[in-house]
Structure prediction request, 125 residues.
Amino acid sequence: MRPGLLDSLTDLIEATPVRSIIMTCQRECRRLEESLAGEHSAPFSQAIPILIFFRFVEAARKGTSVQFFAANFPARHLELYQKVVARLVAAGELPVKTMAAFQKMAGGMACPKVRLTQMQKQPIT
Prediction:
């Protein structure tokens, strides 16, 4: 596994079947929260964008309004998160409107739009 929180997450999600990604996100969210609360804390600056993204995915899954989410994600995070959202939408795990909501949350221009048909054929890298 590659070093760093985002790299570890990327490896984990790439190895996870699409139908299990949301459950994996829930588990990793709990793990990160516990880490931030404990002595062996995950790097705060790396953990917070991941937690925000996990909360966004969970809200979208539940059909809760995602309008209140706002984040200034680092570019490397944006790449992964956009691919994950597209993959989940394409598999029917999240509503189609989630992609537009993610674009809005991520600041639109900071995260170029990707058509779902393109994402279905591309692995997360």
